Amino acid sequence: MSNDGRDIDLDVLIVGAGISGIGTACQLADRLPDVRFAVLERRAAIGGTWDLFRYPGVRSDSDLHTFAFAFKPWRSDNMLADGHEIVDYLEEAAAEHGVRERIRFGHQVLGAAWSSQDARWTVTVAVDGEERELTCRVLFGATGYYDHDAGFRPTFPGEETFEGELVHPQQWPEDLDYAGKRVVVIGSGATAVTVVPAMAGTAGHVTMLQRSPSYILPVPRKNAIANAMRRVLPEQRAFELTRRMNIAMWRGVYAGCQRYPRGSRRLIRAVTKAMLPRGYPVDEHFKPRYDPWDQRLCAVPNGDLFKAIRKGDASVVTDEIERFTPGGILLRSGRELPADVVVTATGLNMLPFGHVEMTVDGEPVRFDETVAFRAMMLSGVPNFAFALGYVNVAWTLKVGLVAEHLCRLLDHMEREGHEVMTPVLDDPSVQRELIFEFDAGYMRRGIGAFPRRGSHGPWTVDQGYVADRDRLLHGPVEDPALRFSSRVREPAPLA
Predict the structure, then answer these.
(1) At 295, is the pLDDT very low, low, confident or very high (cuts 50, 70, 90)?
(2) E strands along 267-340, which residues?
(3) Which of 59, 78, 160, 386 is least enclosed by beta carbons within 10 angstroms?
(4) β-bridge mates for residue 343, sequence order
(5) Helix (H) or strand (E) holding 422
(6) What CA–CA distances, in Å, run from 65 to 89, 369, 392, 393?
(7) Taking the model in full, what pTM does it have?
(8) Rounded to the nearest 10 degrees, what angle do helices 83-96 and 19-31 cross at?
(9) Which residues pair with 222 in a beta bridge?
(10) What percentage of the chain carries pLDDT values higher than 70?
(11) What is the similarity comment for this entry (predicted)?
């Protein structure tokens, strides 16, 4: 027993109490009630991303009918939900499925060492400044794909001379007072298009400074059809129908953009133009260099960014930074943007498996030298699984499938008497490629540190929900590349 009286040898340890960890824990609790598991969370609260980010307007840009768990209906009228609504939803799910008491807060995972002889992971955690060890049969990484400690923050020439406040959204100060002040938000991604309209009602003026435009699409904050169905149908049935409808819709949007990029460009431009003031230079500020869904589309609820521009509370400037000045930012064009507050919405740093150092029988695991098996395990790494969601539709759709497949794997091992499962890549024809092909800046900077995907077989990593559903939900558990075995035991001593 550990110092706090709880088990230190478990069947499953889940690292992370964000949406991936809570979703997986709920499925384990429901489907395999005899499995002993715990969730390790370095912070003091549930929520992961949604508890970490505190910048104005923080919200999901995926609709919650697909981003929510399949087993728990989304009850809010808001389809695009604020961060606190998502945290409340996760708290409810954890309480309803008996997961809350299995979360060990303040447990930062430092390393994990696999022993084939013991068929166990030894997991080293830091708790209250002390290191402790726990062991488990299966380790599950629910850490997401970015560094929670610090976002991407380039250094700008002359920034040390700036006399105002410089803020990154990932480290948003609780006491930041921007009322009536001139604010410049550097960036044009999902965070920037959220922060700008959220600050615009309070700040004197907010300027979104972008080096190049992104695709920004207005999306209704509420789903009228879903809310109507909730009033006339049983709750779970209404949720399931809405979920299917929205999955099909977003898959259709993605497929349409990929197949008809020119037509999609024209359609998005027409929608954008209709939302902006007459005579606005649409192509200067809202005509990206790339095709739709080569990078993720930025969704703005009810077109709030465009409304702020129409009201004159916000503006967009497309230019490059020459240097900071004491009173603002000097642009390459020679124009100077005055600023009291500058928000660097410059992106995130990608990080595989949350700084956890892993070894297998004493040999360090180099993630970039492994290949993902069924997009949820790693070649050569026994009894380890992970959740990486989709980048083109709701993240949680993939997580739900992975969690269900993990339960199937654990059930199979129990029934067949197996202790170890190891993906083995011994097919020389499998070509290794980056796990995601997505032309976003944060992906280009950090994707090289992640596992690879294979060119065919169970080593592919699809961005397609239907293909993954067929493979993970309905496909067989066994595969020639997944080797099941029992532990390697020392021979008994002779009497």
Answers:
(1) confident
(2) 298-301, 314-318, 321-325, 328-331, 336-338
(3) 160
(4) 167, 185
(5) strand 420-423
(6) 12, 36, 15, 12
(7) 0.93
(8) 20
(9) 78
(10) 97
(11) Belongs to the FAD-binding monooxygenase family.
Average pLDDT over the chain, rounded to whole? 93
Distance CA 409, CA 35 (A): 12
Structure tokens at 1: 């027993």
Residue with tokens 């992971």, as numbered in its chain: 121
Q: Residue 159 pLDDT > 60, yes or no?
A: yes
241: phi then psi, degrees, rounded to nearest 5? -65, -45
Q: What are the chain's domains?
A: 9-148+349-485 (3.50.50.60), 159-344 (3.50.50.60)
Between the alpha carbon of residue 154 and those of residues 56, 115, 159, 176, 448, the distances in Å are: 22, 41, 11, 21, 19
Q: Which two tokens stand for residue 222?
A: 């509420």
Beta carbons of 218 and 271 less than 8 angstroms apart: yes
What tokens were used for 102? 């299995």
Average pLDDT over residues 269-298: 92
Assess contact for 164 and 340: CB atoms under 8 A.
yes
pLDDT digits (tens, 9 = 90+) for 444-466: 888 999 999 999 999 999 888 98
Mean pLDDT of 236-254: 91
Res. 297 pLDDT band, cuts 50 70 90: confident
First-to-last C-alpha distance (Å) of the chain:
33
Q: What is the DSSP letter of 440?
A: -
Which residues, listed in sequence order, are joined to residue 134 by a DSSP beta bridge?
Answer: 123
CB 40 within 8 A of CB 13: yes
Tell me the C-alpha to C-alpha distance, in Å, between residue 476 and each of 229, 374, 380, 404, 408.
35, 12, 20, 13, 9
The single residue listed with the structure tokens 């004491």 is 326
Give the integer Cα–Cα distance in Å for 487 and 495.
23
pLDDT tens across 328-357, in order?
Answer: 999 999 999 999 999 999 999 999 999 899
Helix (H) or strand (E) holding 206: strand 205-210
User: Rounded CA gap, 226 and 243, in Å?
Assistant: 9
Q: Which distant-in-sequence residues (6+ apart) come within 8 Å of 256 by Cβ?
A: 263, 264
Taking each helix axis from N to C terminus, what angle separates 304-311 and 261-275, rounded to the nearest 10 degrees?
Answer: 40
Query: Which two tokens mark 371?
Result: 């290949």
Amino acid at 274: A
Cβ atoms within 10 A of the Cβ of 313, count?
18
- Position 1 pLDDT exceeds 80: no
Tokens coding 250:
């977003």
Residue 441 in this model has a pLDDT that exceeds 80: no
